[in-house]
Structure formats: structure tokens, C-alpha cells
Write a structure and sequence with these properties.
Layout (H helix, E strand, L loop, with lengths): L48 E10 L9 E7 L11 E5 L14 E4 L13 E7 L17 H7 L6 E8 L13 E6 L4 H11 L4 H5 L4 E7 L8 H10 L5 E7 L14 H7 L1 H9 L3 E6 L4 H14 L4 H10 L3 E5 L1
Parallel strand pairs: 7-8, 7-10, 8-9, 10-11
Antiparallel strand pairs: 1-2, 1-6, 2-5, 3-4, 3-6
Length: about 325
């Protein structure tokens, strides 16, 4: 009919042009999420798999509060995952309250599908040691986190019971031209480290095809608690100008321009409200990860920003969820 048009001729080359630089992209695990498929539940908590600790390193300085460790595990053959998924860890021992085996704890994966060793057989976790501090400053070992303390003390060669992977909420957009906005507090940086390694560090098609921009907002209490900063600095140095934007909210060292108080991630959102909404309106996906207490002030801030932009936040949020642009993983 009249609407029918011939497609423009396609040029197909058996060999690249003589002046082209050809590299072999890392691709042996790209099939994991092809055609909408995902690797899920290679092992279940009732019958966990055995992972082996390859190494562990402290991520924060001694003057930063608490203890946060980067733990690298070697997975059993066939155990694969993709960026944005989570891993269950079953700590050894029994629960003294009921005498049963300890329950699994879920951790966001902090590496890409290829792992920090790029061999496709490792997985990395970002773990905060959960401790209970009494008013007098002493620690109560009876109230400490069983799994986090186990992981923060593991040594190379130790075995760890793991299950998973699980998760469909925090995946990267299918469209590589969409912007991604990542808002994290503390160890909530984990999935975003995986995202950024995939899009800015690894020699994969995902990196070369990424046509959007990435924006990370990370909140921590002190500068010594900035997680993976050296890696992110390197990504910014080696990426195109404006391709990767990073804002840090260091609450005990920075003040916000709204009320002069401490700077938290919600203040960064408020100070960049128009840019955030412009990106979202253009199709950006926004991700949140961290302690669940981060969300109420963030949602209040987004409501205020929406009003300033002449829209109703509840309607905007429904639209984002409908379009799969809204991703939240808090704990």
C-alpha cells in the first residue's frame, strides 16, 4: 500500500575496514540474560552450594565508623548471576533461640557477572559488620549480626554456604541508551559497583553500546567511608566528559544549601531536582539501594521537587513504576 516503504540498503562487510581497530570483546557470559532469561536459584537455602573465600579487604579507614569489608568468593561450576541480583549466605552454626540452623541473609552482589577476576567464576560482596554498641561504648556480642560478623572475619580458603542468585528488581535497562541514576547509602553501593564496572570498565559490548549517561549519588558519614572511590575516580578519568557524574553526600563533613545542616542524599536530590526530573522525563531509570530508613526523606524530597516542577508526585511515581523506571532495594 501507500504506507509501504523499502528499507534502506544494508551494508554487510565480511572483514572490517583496513583502518579499523579490532578487539575481542569479553562475551562468554552475555547469554545469561539474553532473550529475557535470567539465572535464578542455582542453589536454594535448604540445599546450599559451597563457595570458597579467595580474599577479603577492609574498605574504609580506621577513623570511619564501623567496619565494611569487600569479600571475594569462588563459586561452584555453573553458578552464575547478572548485575543487580543478590546472593544468600547461610552462616554456620545454629540459632540459640530455637536450636535450628541459622537463616540465610541476602546480600546485593557487588561485581559484574564476570567477577573481579573476570573469569566468570567469582562473586564479590560488600559487607558491613553489624554491631550493637551499648551507651557506655562497649559492644554486646550477643546482639551482633551473625552473618555479617562471619563474613567480615573469613579468611582465604574458608568455605561459605551460598544460595541463589535471586532478584529481578535491580536490573540494568534493556535499552542501552537510557540514563541510569543510582542513589545509595553505605553498602547500598554494591549493585551500582557492578553496574559501573560493566558500563565503564570491562571490555564488553555492554560498555561499548552504552549510549546513556550514569549519575551516582552516594551517602556516607565521613570521607574515610567512601566506598570504591579509587575505582570510580578511574572510571571518571577514562570515560567521556559528562558520561559519569558522581555526587557524594558526606554527612559529617558537608552542609546542604537548603537549611545549612548536614548533607544527606535527599539534599543532593533537592539541589539537583530539575536535572533529576528532566532525566526521568527523558526515560532515565532511577535506582535506590541502602538502609530502608533512606526512603522516607527521599520520597518527601521528591514530592517537594515535583511540586516545584508543576506535577503531582504520586502520579509521577505511578508512571515510573508502570514504565519500569523505578527500582528500589532497601533492607
Amino acid at each position: 500500500g501507500a504506507a509501504f516503504k523499502l528499507a534502506p540498503p544494508q551494508i554487510s562487510l565480511d572483514v572490517p575496514p583496513l583502518d579499523a581497530t579490532v578487539e575481542d570483546a569479553q562475551h562468554f557470559l552475555e547469554h545469561l540474560d539474553a532473550d529475557g532469561n535470567l539465572p535464578l536459584n542455582f542453589a536454594k537455602p535448604q540445599a546450599p552450594a559451597k563457595a570458597t573465600v579467595l580474599g577479603r579487604a577492609k574498605l574504609i579507614t580506621d577513623d570511619a565508623p564501623g567496619d565494611i569489608e569487600h569479600v571475594v568468593l569462588k563459586l561452584p561450576e555453573g553458578f552464575h548471576y547478572v548485575e543487580g541480583q543478590s546472593l544468600s549466605v547461610i552462616p554456620p552454626g545454629v540459632d540459640p533461640k530455637n536450636g535450628r540452623k541459622n537463616k540465610p541473609r541476602l546480600y546485593s552482589i557487588a561485581s559484574t557477572r564476570y567477577g573481579d577476576l573476570l573469569d566468570g567464576n567469582t562473586i564479590s560482596l560488600c559487607v558491613r559488620r553489624a554491631e550493637f554498641i551499648e551507651p557506655d561504648g562497649t559492644k554486646d556480642p550477643a546482639k551482633q549480626g551473625v552473618c555479617s560478623n562471619f563474613l567480615c572475619d573469613v579468611k582465604a580458603g574458608d568455605e561459605v554456604d551460598v544460595a541463589g542468585p535471586v532478584g529481578k528488581t535491580m536490573l540494568l535497562p534493556e535499552d542501552p541508551n537510557k540514563d541510569i541514576i543510582m542513589i545509595a547509602t553505605g553498602t547500598g553501593i554494591a549493585p551500582f559497583r557492578g553496574f559501573l564496572h560493566r558500563l565503564f570498565m570491562e571490555n564488553t559490548l555492554a560498555k561499548h553500546m552504552f549510549g546513556g549517561n550514569a549519575w551516582l549519588v552516594l551517602g556516607v558519614p565521613v570521607s574515610g567511608g567512601l566506598l570504591y572511590k579509587e575505582e570510580f575516580d578511574c572510571m571518571q578519568r577514562t570515560s567521556s566528559p559528562g558520561k559519569l557524574k558522581i555526587d557524594y553526600a558526606i554527612s559529617r563533613e558537608m552542609t546542604n544549601s537548603i537549611d545549612g545542616g548536614k548533607l544527606y542524599v535527599q539534599h543532593v536530590i533537592a539541589q539537583n531536582g530539575k536535572e533529576l526530573f528532566d532525566r526521568i522525563d527523558a526515560g532515565a531509570h532511577v535506582y535506590f539501594c541502602g538502609l530502608k530508613g533512606m526512603m522516607p526523606p527521599i520520597l518527601d524530597t521528591l514530592d517537594e521537587v515535583a511540586k516545584s516542577q508543576g506535577c503531582v508526585w504520586s502520579e509521577k511515581l505511578s508512571e515510573l513504576k508502570k514504565n519500569n523506571q523505578w527500582h528500589v532495594e532497601v533492607y
